[in-house]
Amino acid sequence: MGDANKILDDMNDRSREVFRTVVESYLETGDPVGSRTLTRSLSEKVSAATIRNVMQDLEYLGLLDSPHVSAGRIPTQMGLRMFVDGLLEVEDLRASDRQKINATLGSNTADVGSMLDRVGAALSGVTQGASLVLTPKHEAEIRHIEFVSLAQDRALVVLVFSDGHVENRVFTPPAGQTPSSMREAANFLNAQIEGKTLSEVSGLMRREIADRRQEIDVLAQDLIESGFAAWDSQGDDQARLIVRGRANLLGDGEKSEELDRIRVLFDDLERKRDIAEFLELTEDGEGVRIFIGSENKLFSLSGSSLVVSPYMNSDRKIIGAVGVIGPTRLNYGRIVPIVDYTAQLVGKLLSDRS
Fold first, then answer.
1. Heat-inducible transcription repressor HrcA C-terminal domain: from which residue to which, for each copy (predicted)?
2. How far is C-alpha 294 from the geometric centre of its chain's CA atoms?
3. Are 208 and 246 in contact (CB under 8 A)?
Protein backbone atom coordinates (compact mmCIF):
# COMPACT_ATOMS: atom_id res chain seq x y z
CA MET A 1 0.00 0.00 0.00
CA GLY A 2 2.96 2.33 0.40
CA ASP A 3 3.28 2.69 -3.39
CA ALA A 4 -0.37 3.67 -3.74
CA ASN A 5 -0.09 6.29 -1.00
CA LYS A 6 3.01 7.71 -2.69
CA ILE A 7 1.09 7.98 -5.98
CA LEU A 8 -1.62 9.92 -4.16
CA ASP A 9 0.93 12.22 -2.51
CA ASP A 10 2.63 12.87 -5.86
CA MET A 11 -0.60 13.87 -7.65
CA ASN A 12 -1.27 17.51 -8.29
CA ASP A 13 -4.56 19.04 -7.16
CA ARG A 14 -6.19 18.68 -10.58
CA SER A 15 -5.35 14.97 -10.90
CA ARG A 16 -6.51 14.32 -7.36
CA GLU A 17 -9.82 16.11 -7.97
CA VAL A 18 -10.42 14.28 -11.27
CA PHE A 19 -9.66 10.96 -9.56
CA ARG A 20 -11.90 11.70 -6.57
CA THR A 21 -14.76 12.84 -8.81
CA VAL A 22 -14.57 9.76 -11.04
CA VAL A 23 -14.63 7.41 -8.04
CA GLU A 24 -17.41 9.24 -6.19
CA SER A 25 -19.56 9.37 -9.33
CA TYR A 26 -18.94 5.68 -10.03
CA LEU A 27 -19.78 4.70 -6.44
CA GLU A 28 -23.04 6.63 -6.71
CA THR A 29 -24.20 5.51 -10.16
CA GLY A 30 -22.14 2.46 -11.19
CA ASP A 31 -21.60 4.07 -14.60
CA PRO A 32 -18.33 4.98 -16.35
CA VAL A 33 -17.51 8.69 -16.06
CA GLY A 34 -16.60 10.69 -19.17
CA SER A 35 -14.66 13.91 -19.63
CA ARG A 36 -17.81 15.89 -20.53
CA THR A 37 -19.39 14.98 -17.18
CA LEU A 38 -16.24 16.05 -15.38
CA THR A 39 -16.04 19.46 -17.07
CA ARG A 40 -19.40 20.27 -15.45
CA SER A 41 -18.47 19.09 -11.92
CA LEU A 42 -14.86 20.17 -11.36
CA SER A 43 -14.18 23.31 -9.33
CA GLU A 44 -11.65 24.55 -11.92
CA LYS A 45 -12.85 25.23 -15.47
CA VAL A 46 -10.69 23.21 -17.83
CA SER A 47 -11.25 21.76 -21.29
CA ALA A 48 -12.48 18.23 -21.95
CA ALA A 49 -9.17 17.56 -23.76
CA THR A 50 -7.19 18.48 -20.64
CA ILE A 51 -9.37 16.20 -18.52
CA ARG A 52 -8.92 13.36 -21.03
CA ASN A 53 -5.14 13.72 -20.68
CA VAL A 54 -5.41 13.58 -16.87
CA MET A 55 -7.63 10.48 -17.10
CA GLN A 56 -5.15 8.80 -19.44
CA ASP A 57 -2.39 9.49 -16.90
CA LEU A 58 -4.54 7.98 -14.13
CA GLU A 59 -5.21 4.95 -16.32
CA TYR A 60 -1.48 4.58 -16.96
CA LEU A 61 -0.92 4.58 -13.18
CA GLY A 62 -3.39 1.70 -12.83
CA LEU A 63 -6.03 3.73 -10.98
CA LEU A 64 -8.69 3.97 -13.71
CA ASP A 65 -9.85 1.59 -16.42
CA SER A 66 -11.87 1.90 -19.64
CA PRO A 67 -14.63 -0.72 -19.69
CA HIS A 68 -15.26 -2.20 -23.14
CA VAL A 69 -15.73 0.52 -25.77
CA SER A 70 -16.98 3.16 -23.36
CA ALA A 71 -15.35 6.57 -23.53
CA GLY A 72 -15.74 6.86 -19.75
CA ARG A 73 -13.57 5.52 -16.97
CA ILE A 74 -14.19 3.51 -13.83
CA PRO A 75 -11.82 2.97 -10.89
CA THR A 76 -9.73 -0.21 -10.79
CA GLN A 77 -9.48 -2.28 -7.62
CA MET A 78 -6.19 -0.50 -6.87
CA GLY A 79 -7.89 2.85 -7.46
CA LEU A 80 -10.75 1.98 -5.09
CA ARG A 81 -8.25 0.85 -2.48
CA MET A 82 -6.34 4.11 -2.76
CA PHE A 83 -9.55 6.14 -2.58
CA VAL A 84 -10.76 4.25 0.50
CA ASP A 85 -7.41 4.64 2.28
CA GLY A 86 -6.61 8.22 1.33
CA LEU A 87 -9.67 10.16 0.18
CA LEU A 88 -12.77 8.54 1.67
CA GLU A 89 -14.85 10.88 3.80
CA VAL A 90 -16.80 8.82 6.32
CA GLU A 91 -20.21 10.24 7.17
CA ASP A 92 -21.61 10.56 10.66
CA LEU A 93 -24.03 7.74 11.43
CA ARG A 94 -27.47 8.83 10.26
CA ALA A 95 -30.09 9.06 13.02
CA SER A 96 -32.51 6.95 10.94
CA ASP A 97 -29.91 4.16 10.53
CA ARG A 98 -29.15 4.23 14.26
CA GLN A 99 -32.85 3.97 15.12
CA LYS A 100 -33.41 1.00 12.79
CA ILE A 101 -30.47 -0.93 14.26
CA ASN A 102 -31.45 -0.09 17.84
CA ALA A 103 -35.07 -1.12 17.22
CA THR A 104 -34.02 -4.50 15.85
CA LEU A 105 -31.84 -5.23 18.86
CA GLY A 106 -34.43 -3.90 21.26
CA SER A 107 -36.12 -7.10 22.45
CA ASN A 108 -33.77 -8.62 24.99
CA THR A 109 -34.14 -12.33 24.18
CA ALA A 110 -32.07 -14.83 26.13
CA ASP A 111 -31.04 -16.57 22.90
CA VAL A 112 -27.84 -15.04 21.54
CA GLY A 113 -28.38 -16.75 18.15
CA SER A 114 -31.78 -15.08 17.71
CA MET A 115 -30.37 -11.71 18.68
CA LEU A 116 -27.53 -12.00 16.17
CA ASP A 117 -29.93 -13.21 13.49
CA ARG A 118 -31.87 -9.97 13.98
CA VAL A 119 -28.60 -8.04 13.77
CA GLY A 120 -28.00 -9.60 10.34
CA ALA A 121 -31.51 -8.73 9.19
CA ALA A 122 -31.08 -5.14 10.40
CA LEU A 123 -27.72 -4.70 8.68
CA SER A 124 -28.93 -6.03 5.34
CA GLY A 125 -32.11 -3.95 5.58
CA VAL A 126 -30.34 -0.69 6.43
CA THR A 127 -27.49 -1.07 3.91
CA GLN A 128 -29.39 -2.86 1.12
CA GLY A 129 -26.42 -5.23 0.87
CA ALA A 130 -25.96 -8.71 2.25
CA SER A 131 -24.87 -9.06 5.86
CA LEU A 132 -22.52 -11.48 7.60
CA VAL A 133 -22.55 -12.12 11.31
CA LEU A 134 -20.04 -14.54 12.79
CA THR A 135 -21.39 -15.68 16.16
CA PRO A 136 -19.05 -16.32 19.08
CA LYS A 137 -17.81 -19.77 19.94
CA HIS A 138 -18.97 -20.99 23.31
CA GLU A 139 -15.81 -20.79 25.40
CA ALA A 140 -17.22 -21.03 28.93
CA GLU A 141 -15.66 -23.53 31.32
CA ILE A 142 -17.19 -27.03 31.34
CA ARG A 143 -18.97 -28.17 34.48
CA HIS A 144 -20.09 -31.70 33.54
CA ILE A 145 -20.12 -34.23 30.72
CA GLU A 146 -22.36 -37.23 30.25
CA PHE A 147 -22.84 -40.04 27.72
CA VAL A 148 -26.39 -41.26 27.08
CA SER A 149 -27.18 -44.42 25.07
CA LEU A 150 -30.01 -43.86 22.57
CA ALA A 151 -29.78 -47.13 20.63
CA GLN A 152 -27.19 -49.79 19.86
CA ASP A 153 -25.56 -47.56 17.24
CA ARG A 154 -26.43 -44.10 18.60
CA ALA A 155 -25.37 -42.25 21.72
CA LEU A 156 -25.55 -38.68 22.96
CA VAL A 157 -22.72 -36.67 24.46
CA VAL A 158 -24.05 -33.89 26.71
CA LEU A 159 -21.89 -30.94 27.80
CA VAL A 160 -22.99 -28.64 30.62
CA PHE A 161 -21.08 -25.36 30.84
CA SER A 162 -20.46 -23.28 33.94
CA ASP A 163 -22.74 -20.53 32.66
CA GLY A 164 -25.67 -22.97 32.38
CA HIS A 165 -25.39 -23.44 28.62
CA VAL A 166 -26.05 -27.07 27.54
CA GLU A 167 -25.03 -28.66 24.22
CA ASN A 168 -25.84 -32.15 22.91
CA ARG A 169 -24.38 -34.07 19.98
CA VAL A 170 -25.36 -37.46 18.63
CA PHE A 171 -22.58 -39.85 17.57
CA THR A 172 -21.98 -43.52 16.75
CA PRO A 173 -20.39 -45.20 19.79
CA PRO A 174 -18.00 -48.15 19.50
CA ALA A 175 -19.74 -51.53 19.51
CA GLY A 176 -20.31 -53.40 22.77
CA GLN A 177 -20.91 -50.44 25.11
CA THR A 178 -22.30 -51.28 28.55
CA PRO A 179 -23.86 -49.00 31.16
CA SER A 180 -20.71 -49.42 33.29
CA SER A 181 -18.30 -48.44 30.47
CA MET A 182 -20.40 -45.32 29.82
CA ARG A 183 -20.29 -44.41 33.52
CA GLU A 184 -16.55 -45.06 33.63
CA ALA A 185 -15.94 -42.84 30.60
CA ALA A 186 -17.98 -39.98 32.07
CA ASN A 187 -16.34 -40.29 35.50
CA PHE A 188 -12.87 -40.26 33.93
CA LEU A 189 -13.65 -37.11 31.95
CA ASN A 190 -15.41 -35.27 34.77
CA ALA A 191 -12.34 -35.79 36.97
CA GLN A 192 -10.20 -34.00 34.34
CA ILE A 193 -12.33 -31.27 32.80
CA GLU A 194 -13.78 -29.12 35.54
CA GLY A 195 -12.74 -25.49 35.15
CA LYS A 196 -11.44 -25.96 31.61
CA THR A 197 -12.88 -24.82 28.28
CA LEU A 198 -13.69 -27.22 25.46
CA SER A 199 -10.61 -26.23 23.45
CA GLU A 200 -8.40 -26.81 26.51
CA VAL A 201 -9.97 -30.22 27.18
CA SER A 202 -9.36 -31.78 23.76
CA GLY A 203 -5.57 -31.87 24.01
CA LEU A 204 -5.62 -32.70 27.71
CA MET A 205 -7.99 -35.64 27.15
CA ARG A 206 -5.70 -37.19 24.54
CA ARG A 207 -2.65 -36.85 26.77
CA GLU A 208 -4.44 -38.32 29.79
CA ILE A 209 -5.67 -41.34 27.82
CA ALA A 210 -2.15 -41.96 26.51
CA ASP A 211 -0.62 -41.65 30.00
CA ARG A 212 -3.26 -43.72 31.78
CA ARG A 213 -4.14 -46.30 29.15
CA GLN A 214 -3.85 -49.16 31.66
CA GLU A 215 -6.20 -47.53 34.16
CA ILE A 216 -9.14 -47.07 31.85
CA ASP A 217 -11.28 -49.79 30.31
CA VAL A 218 -10.75 -50.20 26.55
CA LEU A 219 -14.47 -49.71 25.89
CA ALA A 220 -14.56 -46.52 27.94
CA GLN A 221 -11.43 -45.28 26.19
CA ASP A 222 -13.00 -45.86 22.77
CA LEU A 223 -16.19 -44.12 23.91
CA ILE A 224 -14.28 -41.05 25.08
CA GLU A 225 -12.35 -40.82 21.82
CA SER A 226 -15.42 -41.28 19.59
CA GLY A 227 -17.53 -38.98 21.78
CA PHE A 228 -14.98 -36.18 21.57
CA ALA A 229 -14.58 -36.76 17.84
CA ALA A 230 -18.24 -35.74 17.56
CA TRP A 231 -17.25 -32.35 18.99
CA ASP A 232 -13.98 -31.99 17.11
CA SER A 233 -15.47 -32.83 13.71
CA GLN A 234 -18.03 -30.07 14.13
CA GLY A 235 -15.75 -27.58 15.78
CA ASP A 236 -16.34 -24.89 13.13
CA ASP A 237 -20.07 -25.11 13.75
CA GLN A 238 -19.61 -23.68 17.22
CA ALA A 239 -19.04 -20.38 15.45
CA ARG A 240 -22.15 -20.01 13.32
CA LEU A 241 -22.18 -17.80 10.26
CA ILE A 242 -25.44 -15.92 9.63
CA VAL A 243 -25.88 -14.57 6.10
CA ARG A 244 -28.88 -12.34 5.36
CA GLY A 245 -29.98 -10.23 2.42
CA ARG A 246 -28.88 -12.37 -0.52
CA ALA A 247 -31.75 -10.94 -2.60
CA ASN A 248 -30.33 -7.43 -2.14
CA LEU A 249 -27.35 -8.37 -4.34
CA LEU A 250 -29.53 -9.83 -7.08
CA GLY A 251 -31.13 -6.69 -8.50
CA ASP A 252 -33.06 -6.65 -11.78
CA GLY A 253 -30.39 -4.61 -13.55
CA GLU A 254 -27.50 -6.96 -12.85
CA LYS A 255 -25.72 -8.50 -15.80
CA SER A 256 -25.70 -12.30 -16.05
CA GLU A 257 -21.96 -12.56 -15.33
CA GLU A 258 -22.43 -10.48 -12.16
CA LEU A 259 -25.26 -12.77 -11.07
CA ASP A 260 -23.00 -15.77 -11.63
CA ARG A 261 -20.27 -14.22 -9.49
CA ILE A 262 -22.74 -13.50 -6.70
CA ARG A 263 -24.01 -17.09 -6.83
CA VAL A 264 -20.41 -18.32 -6.51
CA LEU A 265 -19.94 -16.09 -3.47
CA PHE A 266 -23.01 -17.44 -1.70
CA ASP A 267 -22.18 -21.03 -2.62
CA ASP A 268 -18.80 -20.48 -0.95
CA LEU A 269 -20.42 -18.96 2.12
CA GLU A 270 -22.95 -21.78 2.42
CA ARG A 271 -20.14 -24.34 2.24
CA LYS A 272 -18.24 -22.27 4.85
CA ARG A 273 -15.11 -22.38 2.74
CA ASP A 274 -12.42 -20.21 4.33
CA ILE A 275 -14.78 -19.01 7.05
CA ALA A 276 -12.13 -19.76 9.66
CA GLU A 277 -10.11 -16.97 8.02
CA PHE A 278 -13.01 -14.55 8.20
CA LEU A 279 -12.53 -13.71 11.86
CA GLU A 280 -8.74 -13.77 11.51
CA LEU A 281 -9.08 -10.95 8.96
CA THR A 282 -10.40 -8.71 11.69
CA GLU A 283 -7.83 -9.56 14.35
CA ASP A 284 -5.18 -7.10 13.21
CA GLY A 285 -6.79 -4.43 15.30
CA GLU A 286 -9.99 -2.78 16.40
CA GLY A 287 -12.33 -0.95 14.11
CA VAL A 288 -13.72 -1.37 10.62
CA ARG A 289 -11.70 -2.95 7.81
CA ILE A 290 -12.55 -2.84 4.12
CA PHE A 291 -11.64 -5.66 1.73
CA ILE A 292 -12.08 -4.96 -1.98
CA GLY A 293 -12.43 -7.82 -4.47
CA SER A 294 -9.50 -10.20 -4.49
CA GLU A 295 -7.91 -8.71 -1.35
CA ASN A 296 -9.97 -11.29 0.54
CA LYS A 297 -9.71 -14.88 -0.73
CA LEU A 298 -13.31 -15.57 0.26
CA PHE A 299 -14.64 -12.82 -2.01
CA SER A 300 -12.10 -12.90 -4.82
CA LEU A 301 -14.27 -14.73 -7.35
CA SER A 302 -17.35 -12.61 -6.83
CA GLY A 303 -15.72 -9.20 -7.28
CA SER A 304 -17.49 -8.09 -4.11
CA SER A 305 -16.37 -5.85 -1.27
CA LEU A 306 -16.59 -6.65 2.42
CA VAL A 307 -16.84 -4.02 5.16
CA VAL A 308 -16.26 -5.83 8.46
CA SER A 309 -15.65 -5.08 12.12
CA PRO A 310 -14.89 -7.38 15.03
CA TYR A 311 -16.86 -7.23 18.25
CA MET A 312 -15.42 -7.92 21.68
CA ASN A 313 -16.49 -9.30 25.02
CA SER A 314 -16.05 -7.53 28.36
CA ASP A 315 -12.42 -8.73 28.50
CA ARG A 316 -11.68 -6.94 25.20
CA LYS A 317 -11.22 -10.27 23.45
CA ILE A 318 -12.47 -10.53 19.85
CA ILE A 319 -15.26 -13.12 19.82
CA GLY A 320 -17.05 -12.49 16.52
CA ALA A 321 -17.55 -10.12 13.62
CA VAL A 322 -20.26 -8.30 11.69
CA GLY A 323 -19.99 -7.14 8.12
CA VAL A 324 -21.72 -6.07 4.93
CA ILE A 325 -21.08 -7.52 1.47
CA GLY A 326 -21.90 -5.62 -1.68
CA PRO A 327 -20.56 -4.77 -5.10
CA THR A 328 -17.23 -2.95 -5.11
CA ARG A 329 -19.16 0.27 -5.71
CA LEU A 330 -20.58 0.28 -2.19
CA ASN A 331 -21.39 3.58 -0.51
CA TYR A 332 -18.38 3.10 1.80
CA GLY A 333 -18.75 6.48 3.51
CA ARG A 334 -22.22 5.55 4.79
CA ILE A 335 -21.67 1.84 5.45
CA VAL A 336 -18.45 2.14 7.50
CA PRO A 337 -20.17 3.95 10.44
CA ILE A 338 -23.14 1.54 10.29
CA VAL A 339 -20.89 -1.52 10.61
CA ASP A 340 -18.78 0.16 13.30
CA TYR A 341 -21.83 1.10 15.38
CA THR A 342 -23.42 -2.34 15.02
CA ALA A 343 -20.23 -4.14 16.10
CA GLN A 344 -19.86 -1.93 19.17
CA LEU A 345 -23.53 -2.42 20.07
CA VAL A 346 -23.33 -6.21 19.74
CA GLY A 347 -20.19 -6.32 21.90
CA LYS A 348 -21.89 -4.23 24.58
CA LEU A 349 -25.04 -6.36 24.56
CA LEU A 350 -23.06 -9.60 24.88
CA SER A 351 -20.88 -8.12 27.65
CA ASP A 352 -23.97 -6.92 29.56
CA ARG A 353 -25.55 -10.34 29.16
CA SER A 354 -22.54 -12.15 30.62
1. 115-336
2. 15
3. no
Virtual torsion, Cα 261, 264, 265, 266, nearest 10 deg: 130
pLDDT in tens, 104-160: 766 555 567 777 888 888 888 888 888 888 876 666 778 888 888 888 888 888 888
- Cα 11 to the chain's mean position, in Å? 35
d(CA 323, CA 330): 13
Q: Is domain 2-86 in CATH 1.10.10.10, yes or no?
A: yes
Measuring CA to CA, which residue among 320, 324, 314 is closest to residue 352? Answer: 314
pLDDT at 92: 92
At residue 61, the 3 state secondary structure works out as coil
Determine the pLDDT at residue 172.
Answer: 83
In DSSP terms, which residues pair with 102 in a beta bridge?
A: none
E-strand ranges in 116-255 read 130-134, 142-151, 154-161, 166-171, 241-244
| pTM, 2 dp | 0.69
Fold classified for 95-136+239-353: Beta-Lactamase (3.30.450)
Q: Name which of 264, 284, 288, 305 is nearest 77 in CA terms.
A: 305
CATH level 3 topology of 142-237: Enolase-like; domain 1 (3.30.390)
Under a CB-based contact definition with an 8 Å cutoff, are residues 51 and 38 in contact?
yes
Cα 293-299-300 angle, rounded to 5 deg: 60
For 178, residues 6+ apart whose C-beta sits below 8 A from its C-beta are 219
77 closest CA partner among 303, 330, 346, 311: 303
Helix (H) or strand (E) run with residue 74 in it? strand 74-75
